[in-house]
Please model this.
Amino acid sequence: MYARPKRSARAAALAAGLGFLLALSACSAEDSTASTGADTDAQVASSDADAVPAGAQAQPPSAAAGAASLTDGAKAPEAKPVDRKPVDLPPTEEVDPDAARKLADHSGHDHGKGGLSNEEYKAEMMKLNEQLKSGKIDNKQFAVERKRLTDMQRGVISAPIEVDPDGAQLVFATKEKDFGTVWDTQDLTFEFAFQNQGKKTLEITRVKPSCGCTTTSLSRTSFEPGMGEMIPMTWKPKGIGPQKKTITVSWNNGPDQVLNISANIKPFVEAERVLRLGDLPQHEAHHTELVLKPANDSYRITNIKASNQYLTATEKGRDAEGNVLIDVVIRDNAPWGNFNARLEIDGEGVTEPGGEPVAHKVMTQVIAKMYGDIRMEPEQIQLGVVAKDTKFRGESILYHVDGDEFELAELSMRFSRPEMTATWEPTTHNGKYAVKIIIEGDTTGFAENFVRGTAFFKTNLGDADNQQLQIAGSVR
Model:
């Protein structure tokens, strides 16, 4: 009944495989203010709840058996890099260099089974393009990472890491933390303790959470034999039900190590995450009801905000079961075409009797298609894969539901990359009069990996303004 955010395990593995220090954000628009925690020198505050201690009195690795062991659940002392003492973890088995090399592929993908899917490749290339546009990476870094992604899609194995059996050894006290069943109003915190049990200096090169809802930090990155530290993390869970997140730790003498956190998320307020209203006629107000199911009757709405001026929402009251009813309205002046808006409902209440009030936010997408007398097929021009340095063309048909003749009073391209032109000509659809919109462009010299644009048009019937036709494709 309720939509739950899902994340492909293969996409998570891909995020672990990106070999440069810049974090590519994996979160939703709902978490745009959350830190990605990509670089190890980022400082992020963390609670000391469920902490693991930094370690015991200094001892050389050979005398580790006589030192106090790290255990989960103890209070961590304040980090002091100058006076940091070694931590003592149980010794590990001797490193097998050949076995380590087999594991040391940073991509994290089983390339023998085909590497990246087309969907994963497109998603990661889109992120990479955004990094290039924002200036976070330069053209050289872009080219390197694009080649890496292309190799992974083709199933090419990356060069293995050379493992020194007498080098550093990164050992964690635990790599798992299950928070059990928790409210979605809670911030979950934990600290993963580690120690260098090798004979040479350990260098932590990256600490990378799998999504922006999890943040981490590390006060320093270099550790002599016997020395250790803790990686604190804060997780702001979203969604409903069982969830798992990962934190990937890259270091200088072995494959990435993955820390796992999990919880069963219990919503303080349940609601439909998406309202799909289907096809709706223009020039009419359309009402639908959103039902909020709070955990108890202490819940109160404090604010309702819509991301679209044509969407409104008003609290109607409660039903016999204590559910809060919201009247959601698409206004009668909503424009023709696809309608997609976000509804944010802020509220507060107590999760337990006598507890402190907590804030809660419900976010619901409202999706519909507003139609008039003019229809369009297809509603979006999907170019598919466009070859480099070639011309491309896409078409869409406009027709009147009654077969009436019309013309385009306006037609223009906006936001197109590469530059595209839009023209139209009369045609037929199911034996009746129609108009064909023709989109043309050229990828010669185009350095990006995606074609995108929007055509805006108006008919001489005056039925709507700013009618849109989206164009999309990829370049290879």
